[in-house]
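Explain my protein.
***
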Amino acid sequence: MRIEYDRDTCIGMFQCVAEWDGFERDSDAGKAILVDGEEQEEDQFVREIPEDAELDAKFAARACPVDAIEVYDDDGEQIV
């Protein structure tokens, strides 16, 4: 399972940070940071989700008010 994060879309509500420790607050930029995320394109980050964090990662994606976070299963199908 993987998570994709669009930092440009993020508005800094930090609800994802409250739901999963895979996100951290960057107060200076007013945006969240995807911990260990690899930048695929400008401001587009992706990382694999550890099995024990899958539920928290899904909650983080659902909590985002601007849908800047998407979760995909191992077959590449978007589930959040």
About this structure: The radius of gyration is 11 Å.
